[in-house]
Amino acid sequence: MALSKDLLDILVCPQSKQPLIYFEDEAFLFCPASRMKYRIDDGIPVMLIEEAETLDASAADALVTDAKSRGLV
């Protein structure tokens, strides 16, 4: 189940307060500023810092590059 554009327009990273990149096929949201990856369970974003995965710099850069190549940002 895809997240609505209205929801995506208001969601931000709870840690950095910056916009998120939505990886629909993989079911997660990613914040380049904090390098945090938030999973989406059954169409519901889990926006808890303690539940997020923090990526190292190279993995975060790879996600941003992938997002750009796919036109997600």
Question: What attributes characterize this protein structure?
Answer:
alpha+beta; N-terminal domain of TfIIb; 5-stranded antiparallel β-sheet; 73 residues
Notes on the protein architecture:
The chain is of the alpha+beta class and 73 residues long. The chain has a single domain, classed as N-terminal domain of TfIIb (Single Sheet), CATH 2.20.25. Helix content is 26%, strand content 23%. The protein is built from two helices and five strands. It has helices at residues 5-10, 57-69, and strands at residues 21-23, 28-31, 36-41, 44-45, 53-54. Strands 1, 2, 3, 4 and 5 form a five-stranded antiparallel sheet that branches. It starts with a helix and ends with a helix.
Topology (elements, then pairings):
Layout: H1 5-10, E1 21-23, E2 28-31, E3 36-41, E4 44-45, E5 53-54, H2 57-69
Antiparallel strand pairs: 1-2, 2-3, 3-4, 3-5
Query: What distance separates the N and C termini?
Result: 20 Å
Number of domains: 1
* CATH architecture title: Single Sheet
Order of helices and strands: HEEEEEH
- Number of helical stretches of at least 4 residues: 2
By helix and strand content, what is the structural category? alpha+beta
- CATH domain class: Mainly Beta
Low-pLDDT segments: none
Chain-averaged pLDDT: 97
Q: Characterize the overall form.
A: globular
Beta content comes to 15-25%
| Helical percentage | 25-40%
- Sheet having the most strands: 5 strands, antiparallel
Number-wise, the strands total: 5
Cα-atom radius of gyration: 11 Å
